[in-house]
Amino acid sequence: MSIRIGILGYGNLAKGVESAIMQNDDLELAAVFTRRDPASVSIRTAGVPVLSQDAAADMKDSIDVLVICGGSATDLPVQTPKYAEMFNVVDSFDTHANIPVHFANVDAAAKKGGKIGLISCGWDPGMFSLNRLYMNCILPEGRDYTFWGKGVSQGHS
After folding, report:
1. CB 115 within 8 A of CB 84
2. Domain segments of the chain as ranges
3. What pTM value is reported for the model?
4. Residue range 85-114: average pLDDT?
5. Phi, psi dihedral angles at 79 (to 5 degrees)
């Protein structure tokens, strides 16, 4: 049995998600949702519908996880709570100072709908921070450096 994935948005992040789905036999791309004219969006996975984001609610019983691939500044604060009430959702929200508020909003919506929301799990925060953690375990006397301002900031090291 495959996990049915929906993708909301179809920019670079979504194309990467689609590629990851194609490499895993236990995942299946069920649909891509877009704000653009769906006819103008061409995806790599044959036979998968590209639909208006307004049609997402109609597919809530056909999708196990909706990966929301919008931007952190204006898209995810609105989209993730909205869709967390209907779907188990994943996003890569990365406005660090606003993560507690985003968490509270997504948590409330997901609980209301009996769903789960996994937020801020992209490259940063996420993989950068985990990489630093792993390296500090392997080289506990090592030094962290960053290319992002003074000190070790946001896991960039």
Report:
1. yes
2. 3-118
3. 0.84
4. 96
5. -70, -45
